[in-house]
Amino acid sequence: MTMSPQVPDHDGPPPVRFAFDRWTWKEVAHLLANLPITIVGFVYTVVMLAVGAGLAVTVVGLPLLAGGLQGSRLLGRAERGRARALLGVRIDEPSAMARGRREHGFFAWLWSSLKDPVAWRAALYSLIRLPWGVVTFAVTLVSLVLWPALPYTARLMGNADRGMVRGLLSPSDDLERRIAELESDRGVVVDTAAADLRRIERDLHDGAQARLVALAMGLGLAKEKLTDDPEAAAKMVDEAHGEVKVALQELRDLARGIHPAVLTDRGLDAALSAIASRCTVPVTVAVDLPGRPAQAIEGIAYFTVSELLQNVSKHSGARTASVDVWRQDDRLLIQVGDDGRGGASMDGGTGMSGLAERLDAVDGLFVVDSPVGGPTTVTAELPWRDTP
């Protein structure tokens, strides 16, 4: 899921004043704590780099360096937390991409850890902070004696600390936030695919499979009666013939739920018209597309409209509904509306949140406008990708 936006810089402390307010004391505490904390960070980083680089020619050298870099990540997180508490600097946590690849194997984790820019920036932060920690500690002690200068000195050095934290410990750019979003979206896609596979397995087991098993048993009994009681055998064969038709229809319905043939053969216009014809509410369909999008986008659009129209049938109490589909620049837009009772929401148990997650996983958008009393308008956007 999407990471929260970064809080603007002006959410920090108010402008400095001569009075000793709480921000002054927070900044003083931060500056005095700089020396012991930077000593710990400096020693850890020097030892980590020395041991890792020194043993790089051995089997254990690179894994030790990779593990040490992940420790630098943790130190960076601690420093972001300290800056958030004492300096009012709120920064997004960088993506955990190096640590998140352990499940792909040891060597993938090793390589991604060694080239992790977040960890290297945190290590650099620890190295350059030692001289600054000595300066801030000494100047703050002197300013405590010369107390009239303390608020201004603390703010000046605190702003320098804020700049270091933002420069070295914040996400390098939007790419890292995008990586975190894609990792979250990948999880949604995997979970959705697993749920769909379970649904298909359940439908096959409880529907067509069970019916075909009964059909096989019925035909076996008919075979036994074929000589002794031809009329009973003929009746059983006739019943089996009916069961075959039902099983075939169930398999067609199941196949339609996976990817309908009409969508593959004739595109969204015909496929959405077929959905609308099965809705219990009269639906007008308007599709204005210059061509066909990629198959994956077309399928998501189809199932989005299908589920929305099911909601109209089951929950809206509407008299009429409409489906409009069009292309605008590089986006495929879908709008489904009805004149029902309204009150639909993302957490109302109608599958809206699941639809939103599916669209978000492909850089789509999903917006519900449904005041109590109606009407309801659901707008979905998908990226337009041309058919290969």
Measured by DSSP, the beta-strand proportion falls in 5-15%
The count of helical stretches stands at: 11
Contiguous runs where pLDDT drops below 50 for at least 5 residues? 1-10, 97-103
Q: Give the proportion of residues in helices.
A: 55-70%
Number of strands: 5
Q: Indicate the overall shape.
A: elongated
Average pLDDT reading? 79
Q: Looking at the chains present, what oligomeric state does this protein adopt?
A: single chain
Based on helices, strands and strand pairing, what is the structural class?
alpha+beta
Biggest sheet, in brief?
A: 5 strands, mixed
Strand order of the largest sheet: 1-2-3-5-4
Q: What is the CA-based Rg, rounded?
A: 32 Å
Number of domains: 3
How would you spell out the order of helices and strands? HHHHHHHHHEHEEHEE
Termini separation: 29 Å
Plain-language structure description:
There is one protein chain. With 388 residues, the protein is α+β, with helices and mostly antiparallel strands. It has three domains: 18-172, no CATH class; 185-258, Single alpha-helices involved in coiled-coils or other helix-helix interfaces (Up-down Bundle); 261-383, 2-Layer Sandwich (Heat Shock Protein 90), CATH 3.30.565.10. 64% of the residues lie in helices and 9% in strands. The protein has eleven helices and five strands. The chain has helices spanning 22-54, 61-86, 106-114, 117-145, 150-169, 174-228, 230-258, 261-266, 268-278, 295-316, 352-360, and strands spanning 283-288, 321-328, 331-338, 365-369, 376-383. It has a five-stranded mixed beta sheet, with helices on one face. β1 (283-288), α10 (295-316) and β2 (321-328) form a beta-alpha-beta unit. α1 packs parallel to α5 and α6 runs antiparallel to α7 (230-258). The longest helix is centred in the middle third of the chain and has 55 residues, at 174-228.
